[in-house]
Every structure is written in structure tokens, then in C-alpha cells.
Amino acid sequence: MDRKQAQERIGKLRGEIWRLNKAYFIENTSDVSEDIRDSLKQELIALEKEHPDLVTPDSPTQRVGAPLDGRLPKVRHRTRKESLQDIFTEEELAEWEEQIERALGGDTRSFDYIVELKIDGLNVSLVYEQTGDATTSRLYTLARAVTRGNGIEGEDITHTIRTIESIPLTITTDRSADLPAGQVGLTTIEVSGEVFMTKAALENINKDLPEEERFANPRNAAAGSVRQLDPSTTASRDLRMYCYSLETEAADALKLPTQKAVLDFFHDCGIPTHREYVVCTTPAEIEKVYERWQKTRNDLPFDIDGVVIKINDRRLQRELGSTAKAPRWARAYKFPAEEKTAQILDIQLQVGRTGAITPVAHLTPTLVAGTTVTRATLHNADEIDRLDVRIGDTAIIRKAGDIIPEVVQVLPKLRPKNSKPFHYPKHCPSCGTEIERPEGEVVHRCPNPKCGAVRQQRTEHFASRYALNIEGLGKETVEELLAADLISDPGDIFFLVAEDLMGLPLFKEKKTEKLLAAIERARKIPLDRLLFGLGMRHIGRETAELIARNLPWPERKLTVEERDAATQTSLFGAGTHTVEVRGVTMEDVAATLQKSSMEEIAVINGIGPVVAESLKEWIGDEDNRALLHKLGNGGVVSLLPKQSRVQQVFEGKTFVLTGTLPALAREEAKEMIKDRGGKVSSAVSKKTDFLLMGEEAGSKEDDAKKLGVTIIGEKEFRSML
Hints:
Elements: H1 3-27, H2 34-50, E1 74-76, E2 86-87, H3 90-103, E3 113-119, E4 122-131, E5 139-147, E6 153-155, H4 158-161, E7 170-172, E8 188-197, H5 199-206, H6 218-226, H7 231-235, E9 239-246, H8 248-253, H9 259-268, E10 278-280, H10 283-296, E11 304-311, H11 314-320, E12 330-334, E13 339-351, E14 356-368, E15 371-377, H12 381-387, E16 394-400, E17 404-410, E18 444-445, H13 452-463, H14 475-483, H15 498-501, H16 509-522, E19 524-526, H17 527-533, H18 541-550, E20 556-563, E21 576-584, H19 586-595, H20 598-602, H21 609-619, H22 622-633, E22 637-639, E23 654-658, H23 666-675, E24 679-681, E25 690-693, H24 700-707, E26 710-712, H25 714-720
Helix pairs in contact: 1-2, 13-14, 17-18, 19-22
């Protein structure tokens, strides 16, 4: 076959493969088997191998790229990604409709809703960019795929999304063909949807994985799959995507008046979308759709956790707008947590990293919301007494938010004879220390900081993914290191050497090198990750980020030694080199936490007195200060949040926000302030410089007037930027 013939054949093969993919993945009308599609693809691969100059980026063979060699890069979204507000009852649905009518000024114009399935997957945005002449071309090529992340920025997963066969690499639309001659048309089309894995695909993956590495549910599997650095791993898993949202600019340019028109547009140009949507005119109709899917949810090949209700008319969507957190024109109508019965085989106490002792019910294996459950939390001693939970009881198990199993009720009539109430022991099940229950708290605690279980949980947390992310330092490894007296607290991790590890049963040369490499990387860690990893009570990831952003950390240029990491160089004998970083030392961390008053900490927006007290209590402990000192001696430094590139016009200024701004979402305003060096607080005080006020402001306006705080609106705020 000569080049011309090959080119013609390649073109036909690509067209046919795309037709079959569309029929199989989108329209569910495939007229051939999957084996046929694979056969055609293999022929295309062979032809492109013979004629590499004919390979194009949109070929079905080019879905798998090269592996990445580091963490996924962050990408700022073109527009802020909003979250949906949840509702759970018919009453909440009726209340929402009343809110819509009030927001429209009592306008009696009829409007309808569109009800879509709420697929339990990972939210992803696809950005298609115009290819060719901007005045004539109607072809758009997939340029970027980004996770939702925090709504402001997400992770770039383009390399893995390209492997999902249901997602077109190019789309064509003629909807803007009526533009005047020479006028530049729509240059970018951004769509959003859910990447998910079917239940069958999850079963296939898990059967080949060790028990400890199996995914708990399809959503976790989908999220883990698209975040792979090597796209070939993603390609080996059967991922799908359904899209449901189109960026406003694109929808306007394409003259799509309704959400239904958006979904129809997706279908027409080959963007995958689920066709089981329903247009409703009343809440009663919505309720019927909701109840139908609630009853049949388990019959679907993928997981759903409710339905999404939207005002169908996009003009009304714009008129209703959004709050600081969510659009006013849409709601997620969540299914109630699925409940099942299971027998309680035992009640055991679990000791956490802060010494908190949580009772856990061990159950007969039970399928709840698509996941086999063998344990459920009983929360605390008061809850056990309230429910009168006993070993041997038949209990009702619920997955709270479809995630955490809990015991919500026992069935006394099914209780075995001679059963006895469960009583909390007086001593820690790990170390034997007498358990304490601080006044005003419902949780029992082990007060011994050297408790084996506390040390185990504390170290695991310190090394976990969202803390210092020390790969290879999981439960079994930590247990072995503690048992061998190689570590006693997280600080000891940074003094481990190859000679210590190689003598342990779990460690061979390769595992040792990998762990030491991960420890080396962890010596330079973002400050918020460090604060989270220290395991202070009440300080989660978001709170740690707020503290890292807003406390007055000293800024230093630090010289840090790094181990050379050349491909052929062993970590056992590698040399070192020095690099400069902007950050804080562990002594800086200790000093800043010590000198910051509770009032200074509590006034930070999102913190409050409980967190402030917990932080001060933690740094007031001599052992915790010793830990920071040890981390510093181990070469650990913390990287400060990246400085904004915009002019720091709000440096040293504190803002409080109240009410609804005309055009600016509250979260956007907060980001603008933070990016320009300012602070955002939740309460008006003498330290407040500006109250940024919108409509329906509350008592904060009165507080500002009393304290002489400058009150500004959105117009004045924008003029200050």
C-alpha cells in the first residue's frame, strides 16, 4: 500500500472508529462487538507505524501520552467553579421554589426545570480551542482537562483524560456559522462534567489488586485513575464521562437559550452526556422523577447519589445569579443515606492521633450503598448509652453522606438473651493508662503522649497524602519502625539512614531507596501541609491553609541541602547540592505560634476561639516544641504560600464582608483581597480597616459604624484594585 492509499485508509479508519465509539459510548446503539472496534484500531496502529508522518494529535491511537515525572501541575480556572447547594426533603424543594419566586420579584412568568442524574464521579472541565482560521473554522481541539479542585484552581489531567475513549479529541459545530463575514467567532468551548467508573469496571480492577490496595467505590477508583502520572495506567481502566455544563460565554455565543438546548448541543457534536434528563414544570413532577431514580438507582451501571435540578431557562439563570457559594438557580436533591441491617459481632475501642478513643462496631459484612461494610462508628460513650448498643444486637447501619458507616439504631426485639450493656473500660486499650474525659467534652481520651496507638496514628497522619506525603510510610511500615525503636515520633523519620532500614524484614534495597527519596522530598514542605501534619486538634486542611496564609510568618531565604537524584545514582552514595528556598524554619514556626495571641488567631476568618485555643494549647506543650526543634535539626523547612504577582495594595489591611454584592461573588472578593496582601476576617473589630458591604447586610454594618470602620461597596472596592 503506497502513501496515498494509506492516507485514504487511515482517514476512513479514524472516521469509522469514531462512529463506533460514539455509538457505543454515547448513543448505546452499537451494531458491532467491542472486538471489531479493537480490530480496526489495531489496523490503524499498524498503518500509522508504517507512515508516522500521517499521525495526527486527534487520531484514536494518540490517546496515551508520555508519563509525567512529578506532581500534577495546578491550573487556574477560566471562571470560578461553583458547588451546588444540597436539599434532602420535599419541604426544602418547596422552600427553594418560593425563594426563586421572591428573587424574581413576584414575577408570575411560568418557568420549567430540568432534572438530571447526579453522577457520583470526579468533576472535570474540558477546554476545546478553535483550530485553524478564527474567522472560518468550526473545528475545536481538546487543549486541556482540569479537575474542579477548590473551584479557583485545579489539577491538569489532560494526559489521562485523552485516554478516555468516550471523550472526543475534536468537536465541530456550525451553530456560529451565521456570523458576519470576517468576524472572529467563538475561540474556546469549555464543558464540565463527571468522570466516573462503572460498577463492573471497578469489580474487574479490584479482583487483580491486593486487598489493601483495592478501591472502596467507583468514585475513588475514578479519581485515583485520572490522577495517575502514567496515562497508560488510566487507559487500562474503563473510565467514562458525562458532561452537563457549558461555560456561559460559549452558551451565549452558540445561542443556546435553555439547559436542554445545551445538552442537545452536546449530543449533536459528540460530547458525551446522559440522555435520561426530564423537563418538569412543578415540584410535584420533580418529586416523581426523584422517587423513580431513588428506587432504581442500583439498576444503573454507575453510582448516583441524587438528582440535580436546574432552572431550564438560561436567561432566568443569569437573573437569579449566585450566592457566595452556589448558584441560586440549581439544587442537588440528594438521596437519603442508604440503610441496611447488620449484626454487631464486637465493640472495640480505637485510639486516634490526639488520644481520642472512639468505639467501633465490628459487623457481619453488609452491602450498603454499593460498598461492603464491616465496621461502623458508634461515636462516643454517650451515643452507646443513648442507643443501648450491645454485642450481638441487630443494628441499622447508615452511610452518612454515602461515605462514613454509622450505627443509627438497634432492634431490641432481635437481641440475644442474656445480653449485657456495654461499658467503657477505665484504661486505654493500647497502653493501659487511665482514660480521661475532660469536662464539657463527649470524647474519652488517653492522656499518655507516649501511648503506642497514639504514636502510631500520629506518625501515619504526619506522613499521609495531604500532610507531608511520604510515600511508603504507611501503617505496616510505621508499625515496624516503632517496634524496632527506630522512631518514637514523626521527627525521627528525618534521621533514618539506609543502614537502619536494611536490617528490617519489610525493607529491601529498592523499598529503602524509595522511602529515603520520599523523606528527602518531604524536607521542603508547604507550611499548610506541615501544620496539618502536626495533628493538632480541630485543625484540618482548610484551617491549616488559613493559618499559613494569615499569621505573620517571618520571610527568609533559606539554603537547603538536597540529595542528588541522577537516574543512575543510588541514594546510598549520592552527593548533595544546595538550593535556596523562601520559607520559614521550624524555630520560626514555634516562635510565631508562641507569640501570636489567641485573639490574633481567632480573628482570622474561618478560625475562631476553639481552633485558637487548640493551637495555643499545642504549642504550649514542651514535647510539641521539642518535636519542632527535632524537625528543624532533621533539615525540614516550610515553604510559604506563593506571593501574588499583582500589586499588594491591601498589605496590612483587614476586610470584613457582609451581604450580597451586585456582581462579585463573596469568595471571589476574598481571593482578590488575599492575592493583594490583605486579610479577611469574619467579625468586625477595632483592627478592621474596611467593611465590604452588599445588599441584605446584617449586624456587621452596625458594628462597623460603632467602631468607625470604613464602609465600602463593590464599586469603591473595585476602584481600589
